[in-house]
Every structure is written in structure tokens, then in C-alpha cells.
Amino acid sequence: MSRTVTIKDVALRANCGVATVSRVLNDSGSASPAARRRVWDAAKELGFEFSDIGRALQSSTTRTIGCVVPSLANPVFADAVQGLQEKLQQAGYQLLLTCSNYDPDSETAAIRTLLAKQVDGLVLTVCDAGKSEGLRFAGQRGLPCCLMFNQPTKDLAACFVNNFEAARCVAKEFAAAGHRDTGFLALRFGSSDRSRQRFEGFVSGCRDFGMAPPVLLEIDEDGDNLSALLADMLTAHSKLSAIFASNDFLAIAAIRAARQLGRKVPADLSIVGFDGLEIGTMMEPSLATIVTRPKLMGRGAAETVLAVLTGNPPPDPQNKSLSFNFREGGSLAPPRKAEKNDDGKVPASPSSSPTLRKSCDDKTKD
């Protein structure tokens, strides 16, 4: 069985001290050109690889960043992680990734595990930034940390979308289409503070745009009984003509459930999502939704953590509220009672081709 080559072996082959080998391989100190050449030649001949563990012990850094997201099943988180990883790799850092499955206890355990692995910083999407036990542990360590998707707290920077204002935008679109009685389909608020913030914004928009208060339906992340719950909701609220889902996955599931109940989308029920997943443009009808920029969110979170680690000023602004847009789609149309114009003619059905409406972003308070 072959023996692992050590730094002492390299020093003997290069005819120099261990400290010289360490300085050369770490590029952390002075050494003559001749000594550098001997060290690198010896390391290559012996097949020596400087251990990341040894490097960490010497430099008090692991060159790793920990990340916790709720799930990778939802592409919005996968896109954000991709942007995060690309930026970290450019800076010479590796990403340690774990998922919490929208569970606060799992989230805390995941953060504890990353802290035990001595990560240099953290990028986190937590269930509830205001109540997260894991965030408290991270704060006690004093590590550079940035939230992603969650809105900032008094102690932590964040790269996020203003969920409240984006949801007001959806209410405005419903009102413009003639809807008055609507519902809000949400992941349970204890699992997602983003879901709660979107509901609060939607409630505000419905009030300001002259609509009835929305009916709330909270479901678990798996959504196994969505059809039955939706049937109960529509039976109890017969005037309901539109639903805003707190993410695109839920919106797509709601469209499927509505069809199982014999409801046509959008003729019987309009449905709007949140996130702007590309799959929504491939559906029939296409999904009307709020479009966000998750990959840019991940890159921004990486920049924030890296700035602290390298002693540079954080990005300006440190808390990045990213832009959003409303993407029109075939899943949103006027309710049946609003279909006729003053001349008695029925307007053409909305195009199923998605259109990005850029004007939505900053005009939700009009």
C-alpha cells in the first residue's frame, strides 16, 4: 500500500526546510528563485498535493462558504445557487450547500453543521428571518453572512425582492382585469416569511384598488391535498374568480387542481404566480407571473460576503432590493361577469404568448 507523500518528503527532495516548502506552496513568503524551482519540481515528481485541511490549519480559513436554501426542487433556488457558486469560484472559494426542506428545525441543524465545518461565511434563505434560531447561532460566531430572498434584518444584509410591493402589483393587475373576489394560495407562513410578505402586500393592494379582502389558503410544501382544499375554497366562496399563488410551483399545481375540478383557466378561474419560472411560458395557457432575477440575487449575496472577507466595502447598496416585472400570460383574463364591453361585444381572449410588462415595477402605488 503506497504511503502518502508529506511536506517533509518534498523538503528532503528539494534539499530545503519544511518552512520554505510551505512558503512556496502557499505563496505566503519569500524564497529564492532557485529554491522555488526545486520545491515545485520536487512536489511534481513526488505527486504531492497540499492538503486543504493543512492549508486551513495554517491560515485559519477554509476558503468555503456555507449556503442553506429551502429546496432545489424549485428552480428559483437552483438558479440563485448557480449565481452564488459562479461568483464564489471566481474568487477561489468553494460552496457547501444544504437544504432545509422549509423546516425551521432542519434549518437550524444545517446552519450548525456548516458552522462546525468552519466555513468562512454564510449565505442563507431561512424560513423566517425574524425568528430563525439558526441565524442567532450564526450571529454569535460573527461570520460574514448575507440573506438571500429574505428581506434584511437590523443585523444582516440581504439580496431580495420587495415581496410586499410585487404582490401589490398583482392586485393591481387583477383589478385592471375586473376581478373583485380573489384568493391567495400560500405555503404556510411558518415555513416562508416571503409567502407572508406577499400576502400582506396583496391584502394592501386589494384594499387600495377597491377589491374585497382576499381569501387565504395555506398549504404544506408537498401540497398533496390541494385539489380537495381548492374545492372547499371555491365552494365556500362562490364569487371567487382569481387566485394569486405565492410561487410559480403553487400556481402550476393550482391550474392542474382547477382542471381536475372541471374549472377552466382562465375562463372560470384566473391564476397568477410569483418567480417567473421559464416553464410558465411553455404551458397552455402560459402563466401570468411576477418575474424576479434569482441568479443575480445569488451573485449579489456572494459579493456581499466576499467584500467582508477581503476587507473591502460591501456593494452599494449593501441591501439589494432587486427589480421585478409582471409577465402577462394566458392564465389571467377578465372574470365571466366582466367579459362584455359597453357595446355588448365580447372581447378577444388574452394572448397566450407571455409579455413582460416593465412598467409594473415601481408603479404599484399609483
Automatic annotation (TrEMBL):
InterPro entries the UniProt entry points to: HTH_LacI (IPR000843), Lambda_DNA-bd_dom_sf (IPR010982), Peripla_BP/Lac1_sug-bd_dom (IPR001761), Peripla_BP_I (IPR028082)
GO molecular function, a single term: DNA-binding transcription factor activity
Superkingdom of origin: Bacteria
Residue segments, region Disordered: 310-366
Domain HTH lacI-type: 5-59
Keywords: DNA-binding, Transcription, Transcription regulation
Compositional bias of kind Basic and acidic residues: 336-345
Listed PROSITE patterns: HTH_LACI_2
Protein name per the record: LacI family DNA-binding transcriptional regulator
Taxonomic lineage of the native organism: Bacteria, Pseudomonadati, Pseudomonadota, Alphaproteobacteria, Rhodospirillales
